[in-house]
What does this fold into?
Amino acid sequence: MISIIILALLAQYGCGFDERKKQLDQREQALIAREQLVMIKEKQLKLLEDSLKKNFEKIDSANLSQAEQTFPLPDSLAGSWNVNMVCTQTNCTGFAVGDIRKETWQIAGVDNNVTIRALQGEKLIRVYTGKFTGTQLKLATPETAQTATIMKVELNIDNQNKMNGQRIITQPDGCNTSFKADLDKLKTR
It folds into this structure.
């Protein structure tokens, strides 16, 4: 009789066990499906966040470039200037700290555009173009397919006869050379 009761109890619990196992399996499958949905949503949010960051960076850089006003070049800055440059920093071959360069720059402005014609003696060696911000000249050599070397110049106006600043040369291999530049206006005769 005891064995019949034990068998009846086992049968009852055994049947309930299968039903509970089915319920647990269903819950587990529902949890897995929810986890997959959450992971998909996380990926979508990450992509959206990255896209928004890129768009904000573009907007910020556009605002920065628009925020810097440009002005016509004052007549007092136009003309020929003696330029003395000293290399202050380099990781490029062909340059050494302390190298000296002497050039004559002819500075001219049309509307809000500034052009510098760099000469060694009578020979034109390069042309810089850029803007006058009211306190600085910011210029660069144009990028072309023939030359991947980029030269950027930033000059601060000390007075109508003196400027100083720097020229940075970036070569195609990524090396950089910085020159301190001092400019003195040539006296017109």
The beta strands are 79-90, 100-110, 113-120, 123-132, 136-140, 150-159, 162-170, 176-185. The first strand starts at residue 79 and ends at 90. Helices lie at 2-67. The two ends are 132 Å apart (CA to CA).
